[in-house]
Design goal:
The chain is an alpha/beta fold and about 325 residues long. The protein is about 40% helix and about 15% strand.
């Protein structure tokens, strides 16, 4: 009987052939080896699928599986499809145009194993299309936090992080019925569950590539137009929350959902955005006092943009949307 891998890496792939060699080299250089890679190709047209097929034939050191899509899925649905094939105890999704340090997977698995965690979070750093670092590493804390308490979980609202720096126990996600179709915001929400065991490691780093033409930038109008701002609230109301986490997560959700509402206003004609703003504020139990208390945790750009959304300063908001999201 073949032993099942300890970790499953989910990868949604679409037209990133220029970055695949570096991406796979990161896997080959990992100090931790007990993982499988499940790639779902979302109808790539640039030779990415053929590259992966040839790589599988020539490189036997990696446990890699390619699933060919039959219809256009976009990342969330592709990750859901990959999730069904995962055999590992732990899960994480990574993007093919990004990179990560040699100890990245190992540092997260070690933290999970040592502390019996449901989820582990890492630091990250942005890079440009030429793989040059364009800002400092984004640390949640000045030290590793093996098991966060309610007070420490406040740092989880800091910075702009993705699902790619959150490793989760598969059984934990299954407990809540999460399968990656709901995008990454529920991953943030589940961390605040009163019963969730969540830790943070300063070791290892994920390098997120900022580039034009990626799914996150080129598909924004379509994804925002279809976005249901009520779904994250469903996850928020589904989990058990302490009083502290309820307030902090309420602020976090309001900060995250308000931009989506404004984006939708920008892309969708006659969208009743004011109605959704009031609804989100009510359902998230938004507290201005808690918002002020959480202010220190925001990064400078997030402070400016967040304040603009909060005060409905439309000129600043739409300038931000046009620059970063269209």
């Amino acid at each position: 009987m073949i032993n099942e891998p300890k970790l499953s890496v989910i990868v949604a792939m679409y037209n990133t052939i220029d970055f695949l060699p570096e991406f796979f080299n990161c896997f080959k250089n990992q100090t931790f080896k007990d993982f499988e890679i499940v790639i779902v190709d979302d109808l790539s047209t640039d030779g990415s699928k053929e590259f992966v097929k040839n790589f599988i034939e020539s490189e036997s050191s990696l446990n890699l599986r390619l699933i060919e899509g039959t219809e256009k899925m976009l990342p969330d649905k592709a990750r859901q499809k990959a999730f069904k094939y995962c055999k590992g105890k732990y899960l994480i999704y990574l993007d093919t145009d990004d990179q990560f340090s040699d100890d990245y997977l190992g540092s997260l698995v070690a933290l999970m194993e040592t502390n019996n965690l449901d989820m582990a979070v890492s630091s990250c750093q942005r890079i440009n299309e030429d793989s040059k670092k364009i800002n400092k590493k984004r640390y949640l804390s000045s030290k590793t936090l093996p098991l966060m308490n309610d007070k420490q979980k406040k740092c989880l609202i800091r910075g702009r992080y993705g699902g790619w720096n959150r490793m989760a126990k598969k059984s934990y996600l299954e407990k809540y019925g999460y399968d990656y179709l709901s995008a990454e915001l529920p991953l943030y929400i589940l961390q605040f569950d009163e019963n969730a065991r969540v830790g943070y490691t300063r070791e290892g780093c994920y390098y997120y590539r900022a580039r034009g033409g990626s799914i996150s930038t080129s598909k924004v109008p379509q994804r925002i137009a279809d976005y249901d701002v009520l779904e994250p609230i469903f996850w928020y109301k589904k989990i058990q929350l302490s009083k502290r986490n309820k307030k902090v997560l309420g602020v976090y959700l309001y900060r995250m959902l308000l931009p989506y509402i404004y984006y939708k206003k920008y892309f969708v004609k006659d969208y009743p955005y004011k109605k959704d703003i009031k609804l989100v504020k009510k359902e998230c139990n938004f507290s201005l006092l808690t918002y002020i208390k959480c202010w220190f945790a925001f990064e400078f750009r997030d402070k400016v943009i967040s304040l603009a959304f909060l005060l409905h300063l439309n000129p600043i908001i739409f300038r931000f949307i046009k620059k970063y999201r269209s």
